[in-house]
Design brief:
Blueprint: H1 13-24, E1 31-34, E2 38-43, E3 46-51, E4 70-75, H2 76-86, E5 96-102, E6 105-112, E7 117-124, E8 126-128, E9 132-137, H3 138-146, E10 152-157, E11 164-168, E12 179-181
Antiparallel strand pairs: 1-2, 2-3, 4-8, 4-10, 5-6, 5-9, 6-7, 10-11, 11-12
Helix pairs in contact: 2-3
Amino acid sequence: MKSEVPASLILPKKPATLLKTGLAKEQGDVVIKFNQQAAEIRFTENVLICRLIEGVFPNYNAAIPKDNPNELSIDRKALQSAIRRVLPFASMSSQLVRFRLDSGSLEISSEDLDFATSAKEQLVCEYNGQPLQIGFRGDFLMEILNSIDTEEVRIQLGDPSRAGIVLPATQPENEDLLMLIMPLLLND
């Protein structure tokens, strides 16, 4: 039976990850039953039962910037590799990775003042916008990039105090994937 009434639920991270892994191999129908406290998800040979996250959450749509004028298009694997190379040189506490964007180029850098280490990478990209410096937590950005399957990603940026939007270059069929990453304050 399909529900005629729209419904939603919030899964904790671990069950959501298990579900994502299990559904990737799934061919048949998936049955989801839930109430205020728990959810039961049945597919071919598996059943996942978990508690739901309770609480009132803010309107997430309000956090998504509507007018980020600066857009970066870049090869996802090249960006992942560059971040992977500079991230070990970032401060352990902040994991700050700095982006310096200018027409056609992206410089990614990190530094740890406590240990006097730093790293810098230069990448070719398509960038439409004003020259910009913005910082992100590198491990969070890597998690986002690992969740996208396309060869190229688009990153829409406003200013260094507003959230960045990460999108696949082409949306998967029947999906509208949008990921948000909050910037870190840069001390210049």
